[in-house]
């Protein structure tokens, strides 16, 4: 009688922009404070006003995903999820009068905080059309606009360091089933945009849940966590997209003109030149017309050569399986405050097809990571000790504890989870007991 061995093999994905590694020096402290947190989590919730709702198009009622919801006068913000839903937590006693909702191609919506309910707020945005007469200078050469982005970084982006608080989430799906979910509240030392120093990340609180059995014979791990996710800040890390040969490697065209935060933006489309035989990117750049600041970028990796593209993502895989990426999509957003632009949100998602030599059917995996900045200050700038920094060779799900109850992060803004993620968390929690 033959014995069937089920072995777990690890694929480490180390692609730029998507997966990052964490140095969870705070883990020991979290364990020591575990009992304290059970009491503190209720107190935190009582200290914060919580608002939930949905952002949608006023006419079509379609959800607007990754819309920015910010508190006017304060550096507090969040984003809507894949279903347009949002969750905003504001400390009681702060001088808050209005929240502002912004989305590419729509008019900003200002909402008095007094009109919001704790739940089921429907905030509808109107489309913004840009008449050509509003354009003072209509560019004939989009390449000049791209050169302007790179030339004016020191003028448009903060050259001073900032302390930021953010919310990070990463998920892994096998086919349509979530098999791993990790979340963390992170502290970020954001270096100035003209400084050579790298951004630093410290895990403040973290939680996870996973179902290893559902991963079949492959155990996917996302390496780098929030540290790598910050590499999506392509202005701070230009080598990832705006490399030295960026201008020479791409064709540019002016796609359209739109509004973001009431400001006119050029929408520049780019794709790699046909004679370039290595995988590069294609996508859209949203460029503020007056100052030539990049306010958003959406781009994808060219996967026409799947084997070459696979080498960019897969760090280690077992013999006998072919793993090819089928899509790799990225998004980064910035927001303006007093004439300077700041990193606000980033998301990356990579889909893979796994083909075993002796198996009839393929298995599809999807890895997603996103980070949203929920608070920012230019005061009390702190550099983290080496032992406290989340490192690029760490795996978040190996560093954090299992999910606590729903009030675990009562004091922090988060990205509202999609219904599918909420359902997955419930299922994974039940299996963990």
What separation lies between the terminal Cα atoms? 34 Å
Strand adjacency order, main sheet: 13-14-15-16-18-19-20-9-10-11-21
Helix content: 10-25%
**Beta-strand proportion:** 35-45%
Walk me through the structure.
- There is one protein chain.
- The protein has about 425 residues and is an alpha+beta fold.
- The chain has a domain at about 10-45 and about 130-395.
- Helix content is about 15%, strand content about 40%.
- The chain is built from eight helices and 21 strands.
- It has helices at about 25-30, 35-45, 140-150, 155, 225-230, 245-250, 305-315, 420-430; strands at about 10-15, 50-55, 70, 75-80, 85-90, 100, 110, 120-125, 160-175, 175-190, 200-210, 220, 250-260, 265-270, 280-290, 295-300, 315, 320-335, 340-355, 365-375, 400.
- The chain has an eleven-stranded mixed β-sheet. Strands 4-3-6-7 form a four-stranded antiparallel β-sheet, with no helix packed on it. Strands 12-1-17 form a three-stranded mixed β-sheet.
- It is globular and about 60 Å long.
Give the key terms.
single chain; 433 residues; alpha+beta; 11-stranded mixed β-sheet; 4-stranded antiparallel β-sheet; 21 strands; 41% strand; disordered N terminus
Architecture blueprint of SSEs:
Blueprint: E1 9-13, H1 27-32, H2 34-47, E2 48-57, E3 68-71, E4 77-79, E5 85-91, E6 98-102, E7 109-112, E8 121-125, H3 142-151, H4 153-156, E9 162-174, E10 177-190, E11 200-210, E12 218-222, H5 225-229, H6 246-249, E13 250-260, E14 263-272, E15 281-288, E16 294-301, H7 306-313, E17 314-316, E18 321-337, E19 340-356, E20 363-377, E21 401-402, H8 419-432
Parallel strand pairs: 1-12, 2-8, 11-21
Antiparallel strand pairs: 1-17, 2-5, 3-4, 3-6, 6-7, 9-10, 9-20, 10-11, 13-14, 14-15, 15-16, 16-18, 18-19, 19-20
């Amino acid at each position: 009688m033959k014995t069937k061995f089920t072995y777990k093999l690890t694929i480490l994905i180390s692609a730029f922009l998507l997966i990052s590694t964490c140095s969870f020096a705070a883990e020991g402290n979290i364990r020591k404070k575990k009992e304290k947190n059970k009491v503190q989590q209720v107190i935190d919730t009582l200290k914060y006003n919580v608002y939930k709702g949905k952002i949608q198009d006023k006419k079509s009622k379609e959800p607007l995903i990754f819309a920015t919801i910010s508190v006017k006068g304060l550096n507090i913000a969040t984003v809507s999820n894949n279903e347009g839903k949002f969750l905003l937590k504001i400390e009681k006693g702060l001088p808050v009068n209005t929240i502002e909702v912004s989305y590419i191609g729509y008019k900003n919506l200002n909402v008095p905080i007094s009109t919001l309910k704790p739940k089921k707020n429907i905030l509808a945005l109107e489309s913004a059309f840009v008449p050509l007469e509003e354009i003072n200078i209509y560019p004939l050469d989009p390449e000049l606009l791209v050169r302007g982005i790179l030339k004016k970084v020191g003028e448009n982006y903060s050259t001073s360091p900032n302390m930021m608080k953010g919310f990070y989430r990463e998920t892994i799906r096998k086919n349509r089933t979530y098999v791993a979910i990790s979340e963390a509240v992170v502290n970020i030392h954001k270096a100035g945009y003209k400084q050579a120093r790298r951004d630093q990340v410290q895990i403040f609180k973290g939680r996870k849940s996973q179902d290893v059995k559902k991963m079949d014979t492959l155990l996917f791990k996302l390496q780098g966590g929030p540290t790598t996710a910050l590499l999506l800040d392509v202005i701070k890390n230009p080598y990832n997209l705006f490399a030295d040969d960026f201008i020479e490697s791409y064709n540019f065209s002016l796609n359209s003109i739109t509004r973001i935060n009431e400001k006119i933006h050029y929408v520049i489309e780019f794709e790699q030149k046909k004679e370039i035989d290595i995988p590069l990117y294609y996508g859209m750049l949203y460029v503020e017309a007056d100052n030539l600041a990049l306010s958003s970028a959406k781009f994808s990796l060219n996967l026409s050569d799947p084997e070459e593209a696979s080498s960019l993502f897969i760090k280690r895989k077992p013999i006998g399986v072919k793993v090819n990426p089928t899509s790799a999509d990225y998004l980064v957003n910035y927001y303006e405050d007093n004439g300077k632009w700041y990193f606000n949100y980033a998301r990356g998602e990579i889909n893979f097809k796994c083909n075993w030599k002796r198996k009839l059917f393929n298995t599809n995996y999807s890895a997603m990571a996103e980070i949203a900045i929920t608070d920012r200050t230019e005061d009390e700038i702190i550099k983290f000790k080496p032992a406290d920094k989340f490192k690029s060779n760490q795996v978040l799900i190996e560093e954090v504890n299992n999910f606590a109850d729903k009030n675990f992060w009562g004091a922090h803004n988060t990205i509202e989870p999609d219904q599918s993620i909420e359902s997955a968390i419930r299922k994974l929690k039940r299996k963990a007991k």
